[in-house]
Amino acid sequence: MDGYVLKHINLVNENTISVKDVLIKNGKIEKIAGTIAAAGNEQEIDGEGKYLLPGVIDDQVHFREPGLTHKATIYTESKAGVAGGVTSFMEMPNTIPNALTIDLLEEKYAAAAGTSLANYSFFMGTSNTNADEVLKVNKLKDKICGVKIFMGSSTGNMLVDNYLTLDKIFGEAEVLIATHCEDEKIIRQNYERIKSSKPLLTASDHPLIRDEDACFESSFAAIQFAKRHNSRLHILHISTARELQLFTNLLPLKEKRITCEVCVHHLHFSANDYEKLGYLIKCNPAIKAPHHREALWQALLDDRIDIIATDHAPHTLEEKGYIRNGNGVLQPADSITYEHAHAGLPLVQHPLLLMLYYYKQGSISLEKIVQKMSHSVADCYQLKDRGYIREGYQADLVMVDMDKPYTVAPGNIWYKCGWSPLENVQLPASVTHTFVNGNLVYENYGKERWNESNKGKRLMFDRRL
Question: How far is CA 204 from the centre of its chain?
């Protein structure tokens, strides 16, 4: 077999939907036309009535390897992503050990080369004391997605609150700087105040502790550093209405020096969901009151928010403070406490299908979904030859059946942690095929089938900073 011809498929790409044939050969999209006849040993796949989208590029995941592999591994989580149409990911440095040196960073790349089913990149981590090491990425800027700065509490020695360190990195880094923005001082003050007023904290206290002020003040500070140095800043997982005043839609994305993203859980859940889901949806920054969610949707649609990500952050049920009862239903363990329940949600398998739910609801167009989950991620990070369905580009593609509902259930969850905050939710579409570098890695049409003989590739960048 020498490639694939996808026949009569609805191609969603660059703000248009059109019925096309697509030839995949030698790992790339070789031809897009009205009609393409198989010229050799290509396999034809009938796309009649189906939709073809660029593979999702998730720029914010935590795959827990090395050091936290009881929760997840690069293999298990990349596999889950591929099942949901995520063909490329960018992973965060708060593993154990933290990726605070070039050597440790390259060890993660080596691990992914042997096990990842999706394409991959890894952020260089920062601390208050490793600025000189961080700046070594300037010599590798076409091979690394960026530098990650935690401006709020995190794993290990990665909270960066030394302004001299921040000024040096913002002033000298020649790659994109991605920030987690929550003000640690405000969070601590809120925690102590609320803790002193009640005997036991609950999940619904989380957005009051990690509140709007904590997010805004930290995002504002990051932007001030970026403006001072004309840095390329990308603020991760915006969660509040107030922060949105810091961003613009007056420039096209490729001309922006300051960009931001929203995560699917901040678009889907609100603080009203703590009553039902409790610590299952505890995450940082917190899921907040409904008016924040409404503002995020508006900013996504009017392009103040540039991309959609997941912040996939798996924990075991024990770490979340939950168990499954005799019927397999998730319920709080007797010993659960606010301080015990880890923050983070596993989401990388379902972001596309969740956004297609909102498409079916009339909240967003297919073209806008593709823009925010593929095109704009490629543009934001200056990815080379990915993120679009174009001749000569890598064939990272996902086929979707819009008329085949999919219910999230323990039996079809590929995460190592084995649970999802979306369990028992019926989503209105299914991923039927996922191609990574032209290889049909995942197929689900009646039965899930995998071809793991080819691994993903290291993402490359065409930096013009």
Answer: 25
91 three-class SS:
strand
- 231-259 pLDDT, tens per residue? 999 999 999 999 999 999 999 999 999 99
For the residues 346-355, what does the mean pLDDT come to?
98
The tokens describing 330, both together, are 């998730």
**Structural domains of the chain sorted by starting position, each given as residue range(s) with its CATH number in brackets:** 4-52+392-404+426-450 (2.30.40.10), 55-381 (3.20.20.140)
Query: Whole-angstrom Cα distance, residue 22 to residue 10?
Result: 10
Cβ-based burial of 160 (10 A; exposed 0-12, middle 13-18, buried ≥19): buried
* Residue owning tokens 């198989």: 38
Closest by CA to 101, choosing from 46, 39, 158, is 158
Alpha-carbon distance 263 to 246, whole Å?
Answer: 18
DSSP string, 113-181: HHH-SSEEEEPEE--TT-HHHHGGGGGGTTT---EEEESS--STT-B---HHHHHHHHHH--S-EEEE-
* Cα–Cα distance list, 244 to 296, 434, 455 (Å): 8, 34, 38
pLDDT at 156: 55
**CA–centroid distance for 213 within its chain:** 24
Give the type of residue at 101. T
Provide the edge-to-edge strand list for the sheet that holds 119-122.
56-61, 86-91, 119-122
351, 362, 195: which is closest to 266 by C-alpha?
351
With CA atoms as reference, report the closest residue to 3 among 31, 142, 15: 31
pLDDT band (50, 70, 90) for residue 446:
confident
Answer whether 0.90 is exceeded by the pTM: yes
